[in-house]
Amino acid sequence: MITGNTELIAHIGYPTHSFKAPMIYNPYFEASGIDAVVVPMGCRPEAYPDLLRSLFRLENVRGALITMPHKVATVALLDEASPTVQVAGACNAVKRGADGRLVGDLFDGEGFVRGLRRKGLALEGARALIVGCGGVGSAIAASLAAAGVSRLGLYDIQPQAAEALAARLQAHFPTLSVRLHTRDPQGCDLVVNASPLGMNEGDPLPIDMDRLSAQTFVGEVVMRAEMTAFLAAAQARGCRIQVGADMLFEQIPAYLEFFGYPSTSADHLRALARLSY
Amino acid sequence: MITGNTELIAHIGYPTHSFKAPMIYNPYFEASGIDAVVVPMGCRPEAYPDLLRSLFRLENVRGALITMPHKVATVALLDEASPTVQVAGACNAVKRGADGRLVGDLFDGEGFVRGLRRKGLALEGARALIVGCGGVGSAIAASLAAAGVSRLGLYDIQPQAAEALAARLQAHFPTLSVRLHTRDPQGCDLVVNASPLGMNEGDPLPIDMDRLSAQTFVGEVVMRAEMTAFLAAAQARGCRIQVGADMLFEQIPAYLEFFGYPSTSADHLRALARLSY
Q: Which ranges carry the Shikimate dehydrogenase substrate binding N-terminal domain (chains A, B) (predicted)?
């Protein structure tokens, strides 16, 4: 129950209707006796910098979960950015450091990779394709590179987004082979939809499914439904898949530690969560 | 349960530990199927103007409940102030009007007066004393004047606060007799503690209890405990009393209407509330 002593974790993005974090964190906080609550804040880009600064001047704001469309814009607002933030050029977690400094980190890539590993996918030397090079796509790219993939294809409808990500990746991972401006899945061990395609009814699929082999592992970041049209089509072709919610659950223990709360396992969080699809 | 579709009512003040509104509104919202939540925001004065403006640029903020120390400062931030706000020089409710305008009103005085009336106190022609002329004291003064009291004593440890309130009152209620700078309760039908005295252990009582008659009705705004030291002392002298929480419950139906939510009775709200003293 929320009282005057409850701490806030602001969940900031726009639109908010597909937010899942409140239904994951809040049942865990309640079950664990942690007096905190995640609250959605629907914020348009033009209002975001002022909002973030104002929120962190509040006494009972412990941190913020940042989602689309603010993950990239957040980087410039930080006083202190983790190495992952620097590589990905995106940030999804902010807390107040010493002297009121804003400290940022990025956990979706780590969550995505943890999920793949739990499903038995070997990433060392793998060839991967990421469609969508915004905040979450950049995060996954940074984490896949750190996990040892040998080749990474990057595609975005805004070519310069893919190019900028490639430059940051190659500065940190000089032996990584980066391929730009193709979304052909042939020959890939892993294909990731990190674009918003699938958020809305009738969206086209992110890749040409006829070029997708059953040996390719397919991952998704869209969480509008547990099984998106893209994942259903991949599964129909025989591919192993990772749903968007897996990335979400696997990254939450890292967030909890970052904010300084007692942490737990992704499985425990999933068992407590009150998500309805 | 909070989801991405939940609307926020920001409850802004500092400190927040004595906030009661979350435990009153939230059980009502839950019981009534209203997808909204009141969340505490501990905001220091220097951070407040930016915070208020930023919050009202959020898509899912329906309104704000304003409490100490921001009720007076809010008036200057409004685009549109109700007559009560103008008289009291204080505001405790803000919503977004047309074109994003900030619209403010003030309900504690109305809540206080409704509570007195329900207890059978006749206010027409009554003589009242208010100790504390900040936001809530000013609100009660405005509502008592509108309810027809004939004489109003105003006392504040900052004399200019009482004087400024007196000037605003007399501009709107020219026949009202205002007495300044005395907190002698003798001869009063009603004495109100609208000061923070009682918020902290060991606070002195707001008036000299030896001068208090059993015929005087005594009201309190402090809600730290159901029965404050002041109310206990008044009751021991035989006075009828009104606890701080009564003002709170009686004003909430007015707030709900102001925000555009389905309203209910103070008794219904009290039955649902999860307050612990």
A: 12-94
